[in-house]
Structure prediction request, 248 residues.
Amino acid sequence: MVTQSVPDAPKLYSELASWFHLLSSPRDYADEAEFARSLLAEASSAQPKTVLELGSGGGNNASHLKAHFNLTLVDLSPEMLELSKKINPECEHIQGEMKTIRLGRIFDGVFIHDAIMYMATEDDLRLAINTASAHCKPGGAGLFMPDVLRETFVSLTTHGGHDSDAGDGRSIRYIEWTFDPDPFDTTYTVDFAYLLRERNGPVRVVHDTHIFGIFSRETWLRLLRDAGFDARAVEDPWGREVFIGKKS
Ligand SMILES: C[S@@+](CC[C@H](N)C(=O)[O-])C[C@H]1O[C@@H](n2cnc3c(N)ncnc32)[C@H](O)[C@@H]1O
Prediction:
């Protein structure tokens, strides 16, 4: 049998990071960021001013949330932090691992968007939730937005991409294929095929495999409760379930 080796870190967050905003455009995040803003505000005892985002990536959500909050952005990837700094120069950026980082200060709210999908085991998810809890003040809100739960997973193929308007002649098109080889473990795979064009040059194809964690609603709510969040699941406008909790 031929087994395919999976790289530890997706190419998208290292050698291909400069393409990220053409795959996932900051402009497309306005509605999702507004949904996140309203949940953080509703769940907090007082209007939140300071928010920590763990796994902030290209800063797409941050590019909208920064109008409402003083943001601190943490990401594992130095390349993604550089990209985010370009569109969010006024935000604090810190390189760190969401499972272990301790900044030694607390925030009015803590937010983890789709980066939470990289927590591949229940222990990883617990560590990331504990990091959020350790940085959230009592009465503050924790917001966690996984793409999917064990109960809602369906295998999908989607496609997209953008043409750069920065005058550099770059364009990307991609297909994204989700597949769960073992429905009894806590991961599924997301395979991307990126088609990358620079100026009028030939198209280059890159395959990138992402391993995502997948957990039941009960697991999420138990881990959030154990970490001191009075949490509930909420359906977002796009039919996904996300978790919002007030820190006790
Ligand atoms: C899809 S991007 C996030 C995009 C983000 N939602 C935005 O608004 O731009 C996922 C990010 O998670 C980061 N990441 C993955 N595992 C991480 C970890 N263990 N700790 C911190 N960041 C992590 C990656 O480096 C990547 O930048």
In short: Residues 1-6 have pLDDT under 50 and may be disordered. DSSP finds six helices and eleven strands in the chain. The radius of gyration is 18 Å.
